[in-house]
Amino acid sequence: MLSAKSLFQEIIDNDESFALFCSIAAGGESQGGWENGRIAALVPQSERHLAPKIARHGADEDKHGRIFNALMRKRGLTPVPVPRDTDYTMLLEQAGIGLAHDRLRADHPLTVHDIVTYLAHSRVTEQRASEQMELLRRHFADHPDLGRAVRMISDDEDNHLAYCHEELLRLARAGHGRAIHRTLRACALAEIRIYRDVSLAVMAHMGDILGWSKGRAALLAAGVRAVYAWERFAGWRRMVTLEMPERRDALGGPAVPAPEFA
Predict the structure, then answer these.
(1) Cα–Cα distances in Å, from 158 out to 130, 164, 248?
(2) Phi, psi (degrees; rounded to nearest 5) at 66
């Protein structure tokens, strides 16, 4: 039976596909860590209270990258090159979503508008990350090798999403509501398209590794396109709503260290 659990189980049971999965995940998390670190360093004076939270966000992302690399080491695997068509963060940047890397490499303070752009981009992408990790948590929270990693990363992603909601609502009250709504909508519509393209690319690479039949590959691709059709019609709206989270000040403390994987 074809299900999310059986599909992922097949991927993690094969060393080559598991290494590709972890390498893609580690690369994206490490990139997010760098981006948040630069944003924390460039926060405008009026928003300096955000710097520790943004730095905490970046530290969490760096930690997730280390966790995925540690999972590979535990199986005697090494990272593999990430195919360009599976590089979610790079493709988002190329589409103009979030803050451009050239902007982050320059030593000029960001503006409040830049912070709105950063938080809106994060609110959309953290929605995706939170949902993906919740799916893995549902099926693999008790897995002997992956369980601790899945639970920790899932909890962190929920914190990141809560933080984005809270800070965007604060900025909306400060008069940035229209800019926030406009930026969230643009980010969400671009993200669902890029997520579709990356998902199709990942499935194609996994299919080559695992020897999927043309019929199975076509069925999985149809599933990805069906999800996109739903998201393009209505699902994107879940990424642009804002509500005060139950977790308040979710990034107000120090980052939780990564667990050791013997």
Answers:
(1) 6, 10, 11
(2) -65, -35
- Contact at 8 Å (CB) between 117 and 179? no
The Cα–Cα gap between 153 and 227 comes to 24
pLDDT digits (tens, 9 = 90+) for 72-98: 999 999 999 999 999 999 999 999 999
> In the 8-state DSSP scheme, what is residue 92?
H
Residue/partner pairs of 80-85 with CB below 8 Å, 24 or more apart: 80/19, 80/20, 80/23, 81/23, 82/23, 82/24, 82/27, 83/201, 83/205, 85/197, 85/198, 85/201
Tokens describing residue 192: 């669902």
Name the amino acid, one letter, at 186: A
- Report phi then psi at 97, rounded to 5: -95, 130
| Closest among 123, 132, 91, 114 to 187, alpha carbons compared | 123
Which residues are CB-contacts of 73 (< 8 A; sequence separation ≥ 6)?
Answer: 261
Q: Is the dihedral of CA 167, 149, 13, 6 positive or negative?
A: negative
Q: What is the DSSP letter of 142?
A: T
Helix 51-74 to helix 147-171 angle (10° resolution) is 160
pTM: 0.95
pLDDT, tens only, 4-33: 889 999 999 999 999 999 999 999 999 999
Give the pLDDT confidence score for residue 55 in this predicted structure. Answer: 97
pLDDT value at 121 more than 80: yes
Q: In this structure, what token pair is assigned to residue 240? A: 């642009």
- 262: pLDDT confidence band, cut at 50, 70 and 90? very low
The answer to whether 163 and 242 are in contact (CB under 8 A) is: no
Amino acid at 100: A
Q: Where are the beta strands (DSSP E) in the chain?
A: none
